[in-house]
Amino acid sequence: MLSQPPLWLIVIAFILAIGPLVFIHEMGHFLVGRLFGVGAEVFSIGFGGEVTGWTDKRGTRWKVGWLPLGGYVRFIGDEQHAGAGEDDPASVREDSFAGKPVWQRFLIVLAGPMANFLLAILIFAGFFAAFGIPRTPTVVTALQPGSAAQAAGIQQGDRIEAVAGQRTSSFEDIQRVVSLRPGEDVEIRIVRGSQPATVQAKLGVHEQSDRFGQKYRLGLLGVFAEGRALERVPVTRLLPEGVRYTWALTRATIDGLWQIITGRRSTDDLGGPLKMAQIAGQQASLGVFEFIQLLALFSINLGFINLLPVPMLDGGHLLFYAAEAVRRRPVSVRAQEWAFRGGLALLLALLVFTTLNDLGSFGLWERLGRLIG
Description:
The chain is of the alpha+beta class. The chain has 2 domains: 210 residues, no CATH class; 93 residues, Pdz3 Domain (Roll), CATH 2.30.42.10. The chain is 49% helix and 20% strand. The chain has 10 helices and 12 strands. The strands form 5 sheets. It has a 4-stranded antiparallel β-sheet. A hairpin with a 2-residue loop joins strand 7 and strand 8. The longest helix has 30 residues.
């Protein structure tokens, strides 16, 4: 078992992970805003007081804040109501965000999360170009005695086509879907010979420790395939495969969140900034390859979280713009203000909850309990 990385490495790794991802996210907003002729007043990486910065020839202030937990682009007119100026066009500058058509505002906001997904796609495409694509066939070559697969009637030679409604084109897909469902009943589509069939399986539970001693509960089917295969593909297929792999990981994120919402997975699995910093330090201590892979996963999570329909997040803004497009008029200023207050309260509550979770996972509450006892 490896020892935890030193605090200095955790801090530096966290900054090196979050900083570029926030920059990519905000640059997506910025570039599409520029494409539509929207002026930007501030481009900030981090919140709080300015540590360093400069002003470009277009008047945009580029700065770094002391709190590296996010960032923002403040466009001209960004603080205005989405429909401000419609009754008085002269009150809105030509390069104002608020004065642009709703479809342009929608795309500017959408561009941030999409930039994060694009980064993940490019990282995975680069890995596939260098090492090949994991493509172990889904034909079962052996079964673990007493396993969920054996109890479900799966046999050697069966080809697993889908698990829990998700198509599995490689053995790696099976592992990804199964690992997220410890103890769950799932439907498995197989092909035996040339005949398709469907079986029901109650997945086993396997508690596994990583190299740093952290324990995870994983689903277990109990099937084995022939040795891991890496398939080389033409350059033209690298980006599509990157898209496919990014979508698979995004779907796994959605699955995990839904399991927490429905009570099938413990809220203890929700991590916050402290947990992210710890994981960043751990992966950085393992090597550059592991750290870059983590960047891709963090980028997917950042893009996905920002698409959630929560006011204060990009998804909340997109929801308002979609409503504006349908109603052909903006949501009222009062309704937006109340929604944003509620969204801010929700995000702050989630931050506090995940921070407490993180401290618990570090063993703080257990140590305090021993001191008090």
